[in-house]
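INFO batch 0412 | record 1 of 1 | parsing
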Amino acid sequence: MEYNNIKVNNYNVHFIKTKNFRDNYISIRFTNEMTKDRIKYFKFLKELLVKSTKKYNKKDLTIQKENLYNLLIKSNINVVGNNCIFDINFKFLNSKYSKKDIDKKVFELINEVVFNPNVINNQFLDFDEVKSQIIEDEIKQFENKEYLSLKECIKKTDINNPMNFLYSDDIINTTNKDIFDAYKELIDSSVDIFIIGNIDIELYKGYLKNFDFKNDKTYKDFVYKYNNNLNENNIIEVKNDIFKQASLFLSYKLNELSDFERFYVVKLFSIIIGGSPDSKLFKNVREKYSLAYYCNSNVYTYNSLFLIRSGIDYINKNKCVKLIKKELNNKITNKELGISKKIVFSKIENTFNSFSSIIEYYYELKYFNFLLEDTYKNFNKVTIQDIENIRKKLVYSTMAVVYGN
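INFO prediction complete | emitting tokens
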């Protein structure tokens, strides 16, 4: 695998040349500071930009993708600390297995999708259709007990945490002008382009010169940090008779972490507590005491948040919460630490086996200088005492449960 980071027209292009895949993959990643309105408007752009363009209506775009050997276009939005990441991804068959001119045609289509949306007089022609679909999808989420309990849990934990902005409530008042203004803002934001596959770098550099991105700003303040370390005991309970089971979330703030703790220790801690079939929560809450249908943990490193989620019968709520808190404080063994490291090392070894993990690796390399060999060493350095110290930095915040009859 060969990696080159090259400036083209003042923006970063990450070329990852590899023979591991039959497909090529191009991801255009925009990084912006997170705001409530921005994430809301980007939800519209996520659909609008891949639905049609000025040149291709919905039907014609489908035909063009088929002509390019079923090229796949997909967009994603993610929250990473204080920032919002917007990706537009293109996956297509390498010219070795298709036609020699496929690369040129793909770049022409990318240019069309990104720079020539289906807009007349600053109005997206598909706006009303997309808005109706987003509203319908938001309504359906109220039938999802996990979505509701997670939303309430994060909201009560910290209203200012950018993760809250994922749960937009004001879709109906969004206007076409809002979305067009957001599109202009998106195109002018920080850009990284990742190109993966058995590619001709010089050929691709020529195609890239047609892309008119203007902003190469680099964001530094990624990590969202809390301003207090006070324990809380927030309780949110929502009843809805359509649900037969309950969804339970417990939240903990992560305070005053060093970089070593944030990027290495707390990840192993989460695996030990609830990140594998060998975890404390799985073996005891689910298996031994049968208090949950599932029980696991997740750490949101950049957002300083540790969450435990569980599917339960509401009648077992208090027993389940008590046992979860007990397991969080139970002694951690060298065997458990060793298992957690094996799980992490296995994930690291598979870094270059998927397009998405390759992109995340080189994105973090740009912003945090996380070299793979250093990652191995740092995870290996974590001790039982390091894990124990994390417990002292867990600040309990909120229990949220959504339940029915």
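INFO post-check: The radius of gyration is 23 Å.
INFO record closed
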